[in-house]
Amino acid sequence: MGYYADEARKAEKKSDWWEAVKLWRQEGGDYGVMESRVCQAIADAIALGDRYRELVGDAHERWESHEINSSQLYEIQCKAHKEVYGN
Q1: What pLDDT is stored for residue 1 in this prediction?
Q2: Tell me, what's the pLDDT at 49?
Q3: How far is 86 from 16, CA to CA, in rounded Å?
Q4: Can you give the residue range of the structural domain that contains 63?
Q5: DSSP category for residue 67
Q6: Both 34 and 63 in a single domain?
Q7: C-alpha–C-alpha distance, residues 33 and 49, integer Å
Q8: Are residues 8 and 33 in the same domain?
Q9: Are 39 and 76 contained in the same domain?
Q10: Domain total for the chain?
Q11: 32 and 8 in a common domain
Q12: Cα(53)–Cα(85) distance, integer angstroms
């Protein structure tokens, strides 16, 4: 493996997944393509999780402090889930 693969591994160790995607693509070949897809899947999953948590916000803390009830928490979570992940 070459320079780009080494740099991609360094990016992975720092959890810089989008940089790793770019570097693996530059590495090329079947292995580089496969690794770039894996890193992209990780980056996409993290982005989805971040968006879900952003939409849910402090709902769990509000539930724990009895500001909202279980049904309200569930509705917030369902709405966030539907917006981020669909159905």
Answers
A1: 78
A2: 97
A3: 27
A4: 57-87
A5: S
A6: no
A7: 24
A8: yes
A9: no
A10: 2
A11: yes
A12: 12
Q: How far is CA 48 from the centre of its chain?
A: 5
Residue the block writes with tokens 């803390």: 61
Dump pLDDT digits (tens) for 7-62. 999 999 999 999 999 999 999 999 999 999 999 999 999 999 999 999 999 999 99
Residues 41 and 82 in one domain: no
Give the residue carrying structure tokens 């500001």. 67
Q: String of b and e for 31-47 (b: at least 16 CB within 10 Å)? A: ebeebbeebbebbeeee
Residues 3 and 44 grouped into a single domain: yes
Structure tokens belonging to residue 40? 């992209």
Is residue 87 very low, low, confident or very high in pLDDT (cuts 50, 70, 90)? confident
**CA 21 – CA 25 distance, rounded (Å):** 6
- 34 and 12 in one domain? yes
> Which amino acid, 39?
C
Q: How far is CA 45 from the centre of its chain?
A: 3
d(CA 16, CA 83): 26
